[in-house]
Model the fold of this input.
Amino acid sequence: MSAASRGHKTLADLLAIDEADRYHELLDGELWRKMEPSFGHGDAQGGVVLHVRGPFQRPRGPDGGGWWIVTEVEVELGPRDVPRPDIAGWRRERMPEKPTEFPVRLRPDWVCEVVSPKHASNDTVKKVRAYHRAEIPHYWLLDLRDSTLTVLRWSTEGYVVALKAERHERVRAEPFEVIEVSVASLFGDDV
Done:
């Protein structure tokens, strides 16, 4: 995938794109058009939402719980970074109410990207850097290329791999480790 525009772009440049065609992200000052999702990408995105949102999208509970979990929203992480994560989550203790501003300005506590072959470097390099700069505590990469889940944990030096699992495994993946999930179900498989 090539950059739609190189240089020092800002949120103003992103917002200048016609709303009907604004399926873009701003990563390190460059505008990138998001690829149209494949069936597999959409199925994986739905699988994650199904297994994570259900138990956690609720008011704060005795296990800590209490998240807002959404898909495809623009998040302003800084003047040069406005990604549109496939899935993002905010702890309700940090964000008690649904935000009304656009883009959302409070950094998420967790993001998940479904990596597809056509734009893998955006998710595995550019967004890793942007999310690290913003100190997003947890980053999941659900990779369609090799059917793996990689769970990254923020540290000052860079993200640390907290978990790497294959499609056939069952895991407890932070920050949602109170539940066990089948990696295959995250990809949308019937299990």
